[in-house]
Amino acid sequence: MGAGAVGGYFGAHLVQAGRDVDFLVRPARAELLREHGLSIHGVDGGVETVPVRAVTADQLEADYDLVIVAVKSYGFDAALKDLAPAVGPRTVVLPLLNGMRHIDALVERFGADRVYGGVAMVMTRLGERGEIVEVGRMGQLIYGPLGERPAIGLDDVHAVLDTGTHTATPTVDIRQEMWHKWVFLASLGACTCLMRAPIGRVNSAPGGQEFTSGVFEEAIAVATASGHPPAQEARDRANATIANTTATTTTSMYWDLTHGNPVEADHIIGDLVTRGRELGVPTPLFSLAYTHLSVYEAGRE
Fold it and tell me: pLDDT tens digit string along 34-88?
């Protein structure tokens, strides 16, 4: 579900690998995809256009084996309603959203055995004409079941997703992988959005490294209190970017913020603040970032 920067990228790879794929999208997007296909502009300058089959919510007629949910978090509630007719007793739903809040909603709606957790690592954005634009060389999916008796086994899901065009990594501990990404992404997003600058510029400013370190430690503290302390390797990997003084790295939330688009503040930043409050973990820097983004959102309305 979705043919944006994430769903379009991985969905196109599945089509190219011969998988039987429908893209569930809004009517205007469906018309565009049917007429022009899905274009991926590679980081090397090449362009691939993939013919795809697009459907709208009112056209869903049958159960699917695998439903990949790749929408922005602020569109998740509507997406959950739209995709419900596609989910049968032998369907697995694989969300690729950031954070954890969506997992609770999916498990409540469909049951843990029909929900997988997923992590998408990709550097893409959606262009002005609906094309997928690669901005870096990264393409990885990490996925695994949340229930003890998944409707479709991990080996079978892996066989579908392992196309050879991106790294496909099955795991039996997907919640930990999701927390690893959330800690990194929330920290990077809070730092760059609050300071309105790439991470290297933030770290190079007076007090910058103390600030970014403080943000990172808050995220680690919430993850640890939630029962998912980040592994040292994951901390080191994340910190190599978060503490970098020269990197031009930002996040998709920063891109949206600086281009007047809606942002995923509630799902990525706000939910971390809420969990911290419930667990007795102070998050003053994340709270400040969330207030900043909430003020921005209020100004858009």
Answer: 888 888 888 888 888 988 889 888 888 777 999 999 988 998 998 998 888 899 8
Position 159, amino acid: A
Residue whose token pair is 């809420």:
274
> Which tokens hold the place of 183?
């800690």
| Count of other CB atoms within 10 angstroms of residue 260 | 9
Q: Which of 242, 228, 153 is nearest to 192 (CA)?
A: 242
First to last CA, the chain: 26
CA-to-CA separations, 217 to 23, 181, 187, 200, 234, in angstroms, rounded: 39, 14, 9, 18, 13
pTM of structure: 0.90
Show the domains of the chain with their CATH numbers: 7-172 (3.40.50.720), 177-300 (1.10.1040.10)
Q: pLDDT for 281-295, tens place per residue?
A: 999 999 999 999 999
Query: Is the separation of the CB atoms in 119 and 96 below 8 Å?
Result: yes
